[in-house]
């Protein structure tokens, strides 16, 4: 397995040893991780996982962090039972694996989750965040789903959406300066397209020195120089959600 050929360097090396405060539920045909704050709220956030799937402890940690900030958080299995990517898999097979897991084909599952949040959780204001693969799904949803209020795309794979920038809802884009999978020229192009076509509020922010996956990294293994940017990214995400939800 040649690491230099990795098409998506979502390093699992910093997997959190974290169990989660929420519970797993069945929502129609989808399994999901749900965490609710102690006080009742009508605000919820859908968390869209990266290639490592809905059970990744790092992602559940972020879902729980949303809950400590007053949101119902739900992380559904958007692979719908198909296996998540494993670090032991051969990266040469990654593109074939990805063909059966399209971030632009999450609409059916999102509709199911939206209904669950409204009917079972009392949610009225619903946003979405996503990481990498999930960040691409967020951009897709912000372009077409009328029922979501806002989105945060964290190092979302943007090359699939270069010709689409007329967002329906306020969207915050988080990128790392040193991200090997999302070159800065792609980010610059995204900004240009948004400036030309986008009629809602948006922000594109690049965090100095950061690599792919930095916002949901394992805390104990953070390089001292990275920690402020990781904390800033998390704070920016929460502030954006607070502003629009």
Automatic annotation (TrEMBL):
Its domain of life reads Eukaryota
Q: Which GO terms describe its molecular function?
A: hydrolase activity
Span of domain Dienelactone hydrolase = 30-245
The places in or outside the cell where this protein is found are: Cytoplasm, Cytosol
GO terms under cellular component: cytosol
Q: Name one Pfam family in it.
A: DLH
Bilayer-crossing residues are none
Write down the InterPro entries for this protein, in alphabetical order: AB_hydrolase_fold, CMBL, Dienelactn_hydro
Gene3D superfamilies associated with the record: alpha/beta hydrolase
Cytoplasm as a keyword of this entry, yes or no, is yes
Q: Keywords for this entry?
A: Cytoplasm
The reply to whether Cytoplasm figures as a keyword in the UniProt entry is yes
Family, similarity comment: Belongs to the dienelactone hydrolase family.
* Protein name from the UniProt record: Carboxymethylenebutenolidase homolog
Q: Which organism is it from?
A: Serilophus lunatus
Gene name in the database record: Cmbl_1
